[in-house]
Amino acid sequence: MFRAAARHSRFVRFLRMAIPIGILVVAAVIVVAAFFNPFRLIAAFPIDPGKVSLSGTKIVMELPRLNGFTSD
């Protein structure tokens, strides 16, 4: 019983440090992700979402075009 209680006390001491540190790490990751905004690259793609539609279970583009390639 004494060993189990000692193990539990060690675990509680560990959690008393790990939980606040984990919260700080998660908050830091959220702040860094908001600051650097990794999705800004996706917003720069020249795709107009209005030209994309669903046809059954397939995604269809109404007027697909490739720029920079010749017709052959």
Count of runs of 4 or more consecutive helical residues: 2
Strand order of the largest sheet: 1-2
Radius of gyration: 26 Å
Sheet with the most strands? 2 strands, antiparallel
Structural class: mainly alpha
Secondary-structure element series:
HHEE
Low-confidence stretches: none
Tell the overall outline.
Answer: elongated
Number of strands: 2
Percentage of residues in strands: 5-15%
Mean pLDDT: 81
The helix fraction, in percent, is: 40-55%
Distance between the termini: 81 Å
Domain module count: 1
Task: Give the key terms.
72 residues; mainly alpha; 2 strands; 2 helices; two-stranded antiparallel sheet
Task: Give a verbal description of the structure.
The structure is a single chain. The protein is mainly alpha-helical. It has one domain. Helices cover 54% and strands 11% of the residues. The protein contains 2 helices and 2 strands; from the N terminus they run ααββ. It has a two-stranded antiparallel sheet. The radius of gyration is 26 Å and the shape is elongated. The mean pLDDT is 81.
